[in-house]
Amino acid sequence: MTNQSRMALRQSPLQNLTRRHLLLAAAFVAILSGFSTMRVEAAENSVVAVVNADPISRDSLATASVQRYGTDVLDNLINRHLIMQECKRRGLGVTTEEVRTEINRVAKKFGLNVESYLQLLNEERDITPDQYSREIIWPMLALRKLVADEVVVSQDEFNRAFVSQYGEAIKCRMVMVQDKSQATQLRAQAVAEPSSFARLAKEFSEDPTSASVGGLIPPIRRYMGDETIEEAAFGLKVDEVSELLPVGDHWMFLQAVRRMPASQPSPQAMPAIKEQINDRIRDEKMKTAASQLFAQLQEQAQVVKILGDPQASAKHPGVAAIINGQQVSISSVAAECIKRHGESVLEGEINRKLLTQALAKAGKKVTNEDLKAEIERAAISFGYMTDNGSADVQGWFDAVLEGGPGTREVYIEDVVWPSVALKKLVEDETTLTQEDLQIGFESHYGPRAEVLACVLSDQRSAQKVWEMARDNPTDQFFGQLANQYSIEPVSSSNFGKVPPIKQHGGQPSVEKEVFQMKPGDLSGIIATGDKYIILRCQGFTEPIVSDFEAVQEELSSVLIEKKMNVAMSLKYDELKQTAEIDNFFVASKEIPRVASGTR
């Protein structure tokens, strides 16, 4: 998603209503003693939530989930079906125990037990244990079995891997620059004076990591990567400088620092070392072979995607895709979508239900013209306009839908409609008073106070600094105090100088004090939260605009938008707090289990 679309969502409480951008906290689930069983049974049947006595069915949740995520989920299902079909053709299978064993092995690699590892996946990558086992571990194990006969570790491969890990290594310094003529000159200096190599690396090398330590790089070993660099390094004597070596669009040269002799593992350790090296090589070869096989299966497969194609759907009702003659039903795609995304999609459906109920109660409707106007407003507000100044709607949609799932229809339903609905609910109670306009004018166009500031963490320190500032009333001395004592980075590093303070900017205690001061005045100690602020007034700027009528129209538009956003947020909070919501889907969620077999 683009930065513009992210910014768009920050402009109103609409962000609290969207499934894809910022999800609300999970809907309130009151699980009282004696009602848990009833709610689990409700979830297993047709109702997944009840909002103010109005039910949301599992069918409607399935439809909404497929509409938003069906394409991505179907692609994943197709890939898994291809692997399953090939396993079936060859008479291979992956058992539940094999899946559990592999998850345990992976968890141990990270130094975690299985529970901690699965919890980490869930929290950090939003992957449930069931999803991890079915969509990641099972396909990987299946592909490994399919290519197992093709993967053999040769003696030569083992020998090369052993040498790269335990063989001789060369500790080197490096200088890397993009310009070849500069590289030639620097190398000549290094050859003439080898002791200057570290200095040259620090001053001129364009690789910041090695330059910061005088050009030192990790030891170079055999069979680790670029054979040209390895040969150059192993051909050097200590302090000798290599020829120029091309690396991408840069040039580099090396200096050998010392030769590190080969390690000689004990005979007792060799069996474990052999097993570890062989496993690593086999894993790498299996990954390559599995990727090649999977690409081959995809290339050879006959796949017909029906989901999203109205004509194909009419010919094959209830079918999402046909894979090598085998049908994948829409119901199976829907079930998968609900497994992965049901909770978040249901939140959106609950929000929509709340707004729909509120609109009906208020006797209001959201029309297509309302939606069109909101889209155009959003497009223009972020600079998407045509040459004649009208909204570039297509450009706006291209921006907000870029890089993410979803369609124009989904975006309108999840983002635009809720925003318009909320505006409808608060439009009658959102008005501007003359006081609002006056405050807004002073805040946007009025004078700013230029001050020096010192921020302290406790009153005792503040009292000490205030007394010193009072006894030596100059800007220079106050700046030195701020540099020495202020705990706020900007005022400390700039010797007290902070951005000018405007009226009605959200700091009432500070603003009240500073706009009563004259140039050269020292404020009292201003307590705000857990901080204590001392100010020294340097003067006031001239008002940006003095003619109120010249900016009244633009100012009114800005202020009404801000006031509307606040009212929308409050209205939404009110709807949530006063609603009776039973979310059976969340209440009935079982502790996820590792998937079995080839589901």
UniProtKB/TrEMBL annotation:
Keyword Cytoplasm in the entry? The reply is no
Q: Which residues form a coiled coil?
A: none
Keyword Signal attached? yes
What one GO molecular function would you report for this record?
peptidyl-prolyl cis-trans isomerase activity
What are the record keywords, sorted?
Answer: Isomerase, Rotamase, Signal
Please list the residue ranges annotated as the PpiC domain: 167-258, 429-539
Please write the reaction equations for the catalytic activity of this protein: [protein]-peptidylproline (omega=180) = [protein]-peptidylproline (omega=0)
SUPFAM superfamilies (alphabetical): FKBP-like, Triger factor/SurA peptide-binding domain-like
The broad enzyme category this protein falls into is isomerase
UniProt-listed Enzyme Commission number(s): 5.2.1.8
* Top-level taxon: Bacteria
Question: Know the name of this protein?
Answer: peptidylprolyl isomerase
Q: Which species expresses this protein natively?
A: Rhodopirellula europaea 6C
